[in-house]
Amino acid sequence: MKPTVLIAATDRWFPTARLAMALANAGFAVEAVCPSGHPLGTTSIVGRTHSYRGLWPLASFGSAIVSARPDIIVPADDLAASHLHRLHGQGSGRGGSGAAICALIERSLGAPESFPVLFARTSFLELSRELGVRCPKTEVVTSVDDLRTCAAGMGYPLVLKADGSSGGNGVSIVRTFDETEHAFRKLSAPPLLARAVKRTLLDRDSTLLGRSLSRVRSVVNAQAFVAGREATSAIACWKGTVLASLQFEVAQKAKSAGHATVVRVIENEEMSFAAEQIARRLHLSGLHGLDFMIEASTGRAHLIEINPRATQVGHLALGPQCDLPAALYAAVSGKALNPAPKITENDTIALFPQEWIRDVSSPFLLSGYHDVPWQEPNLVRACVLSHRRQAAWYSRRTAFSHGSAAGSGVPLTQEQESPPLTR
What we know:
By secondary structure, the chain is α/β, with parallel strands linked by helices. It folds into 4 domains: 4-109, Rossmann fold; 137-224, ATP-grasp fold, A domain (Dna Ligase, domain 1, 2-Layer Sandwich), CATH 3.30.1490.20; 228-371, D-amino Acid Aminotransferase, Chain A, domain 1; 377-417. It has 16 helices and 15 strands. The chain has helices at residues 14-26, 57-68, 78-91, 96-109, 115-118, 121-130, 144-154, 177-188, 193-201, 207-214, 269-282, 324-333, 354-358, 364-367, 377-401, 414-417, and strands at 4-8, 29-34, 46-51, 72-75, 138-141, 158-162, 171-174, 220-224, 228-238, 241-253, 260-265, 286-295, 301-307, 348-351, 369-371. Helix 2 crosses helix 3, helix 3 (78-91) runs antiparallel to helix 4 (96-109) and helix 9 (193-201) runs antiparallel to helix 10 (207-214). The protein is globular, with a radius of gyration of 21 Å.
């Protein structure tokens, strides 16, 4: 019998469906807990989908776990990982099904003692620095006085990041104190109620509503700016050991502080060292991502954050030690590693639909390997149609914002109003 993986998703990101395909190809039976209308539903490989309800997230996840009885859970986004951490805390100390769910979450993600630090950027980087990993100075800021102190000590440009954000959202690079103060107030503020209601009614996503109504503010961190090239490492871990890894430099992004749309394969010893030390210290299991800056003047790798979940490149099969789903399957099943054939010898990979959405005429679509899942035509079709609907919607909204709504001075943007297809 195949081991079952339960993919836990709270948003309708296209890369989650790519990950499901790769996990199925590795040998898993795949089930998912996700919002209705998720791209996962267009694939031919997901056995069952279980409903994710944003107003009752822990109950949704708990019901899916009881029904699917998975061998491992893979969170596909930060909020899903956070829900699993909370679900573990809720069941800790309980017997019966609560204890079983806690054991499964620990098997899937790693030691529960590491959970709090994974979502606290400053604490995580302090721990990493203790392990000998190079990291930029990072501090929590809670007031304007904190901002002045950090700006004086770190200088400009300065990077402000909100805990729990991903894909470039919740990040601002600032160059003056006025920009710093404005960005801090924006990043720390609870979600606007109008935005949360719109997401609930139109996008059927109520994850922002609870935070908006309860006026939950985000923790903001100030981080010293590192001039250089962005890089990322995706890793598969098991009980503190790195089983497989992928390393890339970012060749193209959707926007200045956004997700990568084109990546280039690299090998970097400092990135490998960081992954091994962190996985061992936090006793990690499952799929995780580490983001770095490669310093332009020295070529040294600076770790800037961890993603405690699968990332958008995790489905790529690039050789025996570079196939994360195959490595995870071998660990869960106890069978020998059987990696998928290497998808390309081209070092440059244009991610679909990320780069196509950014620029349909991009030269990377021809010069690089364009990672289109042709074996799942319904998934490709759903992505294209979804992008066209969003483009038409925001075209109308932009026209409206420049017309009768222009007096508000706050044009509606895609980042404000819609969950992205990619991250």
